[in-house]
Amino acid sequence: MHFRFISSVLCVLCALTYSGVSFAHLVYVSNEKDDTISIIDTTSNEVVNTIEVGERPRGITFSKDYSKLFICASDSDAVQVYDVAAAKLIHDLPSGEDPEQFVLHPDNKRLYIANEDDAIATVVDIESRTVIAQIEVGVEPEGMAVSHNGKWVIVTSETSNMAHWVDTEKNEIVANTLVDQRPRDAEFSLDDSELWVSSEIGGTVAVIDTATQQTRKTLSFEINGISADRIQPVGMELTKDGKLAFIALGPANHVAVVDRASLEVIEYILVGKRVWHMALTPEQDKLYTTNGVSGDVTIIDVASLKAEKSVKVGRYPWGAAVLPAEYIP
Amino acid sequence: MTAFFGKQCCVVGNSLRMFIIIAVLFVVAIGSVKANEVDVAVFYLEQTIERPPVRSKLISWPEDDGLQGAALGISDNNTTGKFLKHQYSLEHTVVDNNADLMASAKQLLGQGPVVLILNVPAEAVVAISDLPEAADDLLFNARSKRIGLRSEDCRVNVLHTIPSRAMLSDALMQFFAMRRWSQLFLVEGNRPGDSWFAEALRTSAKKFGLKIVKQKQWLDDADIRRNASLEIPAFTQHKKYDAVIVADEDQDFGHYLLYNTWLPRPVAGSAGLTPVVWSPVIEQWGALQLQSRFRKLAGRDMTGVDYANWAAVRSVGEAVTRTNTNDVASLREYILGDQFELAGFKGHSLSYRGWNGQLRQAVPLVHAHAVSANAPIEGYLHQTTELDTLGLDKPESRCNAF
After folding, report:
1. Are residues B206 and B121 in the same domain?
2. What chain A residue is nearest to B76 in terms of C-alpha separation?
3. Which residue in the set B79, B292, B387 is minimally distant from A139, CB to CB?
C-alpha cells in the first residue's frame, strides 16, 4: 500500500516533469567549425543533443510546419534537409556552390539561397527539389530576408554594398539600395513597412522604407571603451510587437537594443565573444545569441534586457533557429 | 572586355606596340558598352623586376603578380556596376626597362585625366608622378613600400595601397611589445630592400620601446642549405635576446635561421613570424571569399601585391558607386574625403590618410599556416583610429604636398 502510494506520487511527478519538458522549446545552433548542430532546451538552457551535419554549417531555418530543418552546409556545397521527427538528414537540395544563408518563402515552397562565391542567389523548390531560378546579384551575397507578405526577397551583397530587392513573382531584381560597407543581415518588420540592413564594416544599420526603397535612418553605435572599429553589426532580430530591435555587434561582444519608435539605442548588453546571429523564442521573452569566438550561446531576458546565462556549444556557433514546444515530435 | 584583363600578360620589350594594340581593342570595347551611363577605365603600368636567385626552390614570385589583383578588382567592380550602369575596364602595360616605362607613362597620362595603377620601383613612382602630363591624374602606388614616398618624397597625385615598410615593422614591434620580447637580435641581408627593411625595424623598435641588443650583416658566402645547423648557431651567438628579427626581403636565407639560433628564440621579420599585406592563411572577416574568388580567377594564391592592386581598383569602384561619376578629380576628392571607406577583409574598414595618401590597413602577422596576430594590436590607442598606430602618423610624416 505504502509502496503503491509512493510509486503513484512518483508517477505524478514524472508526468509533471514530462509535461514541463514538453513546454520547453529547442534552439538549434549551427557550429561552423565543428560540422554539428547543438540543440539547447530552453527550460534547462543546457545542450540536450548534438547532431552531425555537413561541412561548415552556417544558415539554418525550419520549414513552416517545423517538420524539417534546412541547413546550409557551405563547404559541402549543399543545403541539407533534416527530418525533425526522424532525427536524421534525409536528403540534399540542389543549392548551387557555397550556400551561406537562405530564407524560406511564406509559401513554404521556395527556398532562396545566397551562393556567396558565385554572386548569385538560387531559388529552389523544396518539394520537387529542383532549381526554379538563379538570380545574378552583387559580389558575395550574404544577408537574406523575405517579407511576411511574400512579395519581396532581399539579398545583401557584402562587397557590392547593396540590398537587392527581388520581386518574388518574377524572381528578378527590380531595385537596389546602397548601404554601408559589408552588409550582413536583413530583416523586415512584421508589417513589412521597414527593412533593416546591418553593415558590418560600416558599423551601421540602415532602416529602409519598403515603399520607396530609400534609407530612412542610418543607426550607428558607440560603446565606452570599445573602439569604433570593433563595432561590427551582424545579426538582427526585430520583436513582433514592433517595440525593439536587437543588433549583434560582432567583435564588440555586445548586443545593441534599439527602441523602434525613436530609432535610438537604449541598451548595450555584454555577451560572448564575436556575437553573430540570434533567435527569439515564440513568446519573445528570451533571446539566444551565437558567440563565434567564445563558442557559446548567451541567453538574454527580453523584459529586463539582461544576459542571464551562457551555455557552451560547438566551435564557432553561427546560426540559430527555434523549434517551438508544440512542434517537438 | 574580359579578353584582356583576365589573361596573364606577356612581358614585352616593345611595350609601345603592345600599348597601341590594347588601346585599339579598348576603343572598340568602349564602343560596345556605350549603353552604360558611366564607363571607367583603369590603367595598369608595371615594370618587371629582375629578381636575383634565392637558395630555396620553393620561393618564387608569379609573373602576373599584381595584375591579377587588379583584374579581380575590375571583376568585383563590374558585378556591382551592372546594377548601377557602371562599366569598368582594365588596360595593362608591362615593360622591362626604364626608357619604355617613361614613354608608356607619358602616353597613358597624356590622354587627359586618368586612373593609373603603378607597379614600379620607388624612383619611378616619383619620376612618373612628376611628369607634367600627370598633374591631373589619380595615381596609385601598389608596389613600392619605400617609406620616403609617404614622407619627403610624397606627391599629391599619388595614393599608396601597399603598406610602407614602417607599417609592417610597426606591426611586428607592437606584437613584440605585447609579448614583452624587448631585446632583439637583428640580422640584415645584403640586398637593397634588406637595408630599407632593417632601417624600418630599427626605427619601429625605438618607437615601441624595444631594444636591438645586437645586429649583424648576413654572410653571403655561407652554404646554409647544408650547414645551417653549424653556421647559424655560431652566427647568432649572443648572451641574451628574446627574438631574432631578420631583414631578407627576397627570402634568400631567413628561413634557415628558424630552430638554428644560438638561443632557443623565435625568428620574425622576413621569415618565421612575418608582417604581411596579405597571405593565403588569412580567413577571418570574410577573407575566405576573397581568397577563393581570386583562386578561381588566377589559378594561384593571392599575394600582397595582388591585394594592393585589388584595393586600388576597389577604391576607384567604391568612389564611382557612391558619386556616380568617372570624373577623376571628383573620384580623388571622394577617396580622400571623410565619407570614404572600403571593406578590405582585414577586420577594419580601409581609408586613406589625408596627410600622405597612404591606405590605412591592418597588418596580419602570419607564419606558414596560420595568422598569429593582427596588428594594430589591441591596446595601442590612437585619437583617430587604431590603424594610425601603424606607419607614419601625421606628425611623423614629412609630406607637405597634401
Report:
1. no
2. A139
3. B79
Residue of A58, A139, A185 to mutate, interface with B, max B Cβ within 10 Å: A139
ipTM value: 0.78
Q: Is B83 on the interface with A (CB under 8 A)?
A: yes
Is the domain of B61 the same as that of B140? yes
pLDDT at position A297 is 98
What percent of chain B shows pLDDT beyond 90?
78
CATH number assigned to the domain comprising residue B10: 3.40.50.2300
Task: Assign B29 to helix, strand or coil.
Answer: helix
* Separation in Å, CA B259 to CA B221, B232, B263, B274: 21, 9, 9, 16
Say whether both B111 and B224 belong to one domain: no
**In a 10 Å sphere around its CB, with 0-12 CB exposed, 13-18 middle and 19+ buried, how is residue A70 labelled?**
buried
Together in a domain, B142 and B174 = no
Inter-chain CB proximity A229 and B386 less than 8 Å? yes
| A residues 172-191 closer than 8 Å to B (CB) | 173, 176, 178, 180-182
In a domain? residue B100: yes
Each residue's pLDDT tens digit, B76-97: 999 999 999 999 999 999 999 9
Give yes or no: residues B254 and B351 share one domain. no
- Is B9 within the bounds of a domain? yes
Residues of B with CB below 8 A from A227's CB?
381, 385-386
What is the chain B residue with the closest CA to A251? B347
If asked whether residues B120 and B176 sit together in one domain, one would say no
Interface check for B293 against chain A (CB to CB < 8 A): the answer is yes
What span, in angstroms and rounded, lies between the C-alpha atoms of A104 and A125?
A: 10
Using CB atoms, pick whichever of A98, A138, A182 lies closest to residue B343.
A182
E strands, A150-243, are: 152-157, 162-167, 172-178, 183-188, 194-199, 204-209, 214-220, 236-238
Boundaries of domain holding B96: 2-163+279-361
Residues of A in contact with B385 (CB under 8 A): 227-229
Task: Report the alpha-carbon distance of residue A241 to residue A250 in Å, rounded.
Answer: 25
| Number of domains chain B contains | 2
Asked whether residue B151 is assigned to any structural domain, the reply reads: yes
Based on the fold, state whether residues B6 and B149 are members of the same structural domain: yes
Beta bridge partners of B87: B39
- CB contacts < 8 A (A, B): 72
Q: Are residues B159 and B301 in the same domain?
A: yes
